[in-house]
Amino acid sequence: MRVLVCGGAGYIGSNMTAMLAAEGFEPVVFDNLSRGHKSAVKHAELVKGNLSDYDLLIETCKKYKIEAVMHFAAFIEVGESVQQPLKYFDNNVSSTCILLSAMQAAGVEKFVFSSSAAVYGNPTRIPITEDSPKEPINPYGQTKLEVERICHFQSQATKFRYASLRYFNAAGAGLKSMLGEDHRPESHLIPLVIQAAMGKRGEIKIYGTDYATPDGTCIRDYIHIEDLCRAHLLALKKLDEKPELIYNLGNGKGYSVREVVETVKEVSGKDFKVAEIERRPGDPPILIADATKAKNELGWQRQYPQLEKIVESAWMWHNKFPNGYQD
Question: Do 148 and 214 belong together in one domain?
Answer without folding.
Answer: no
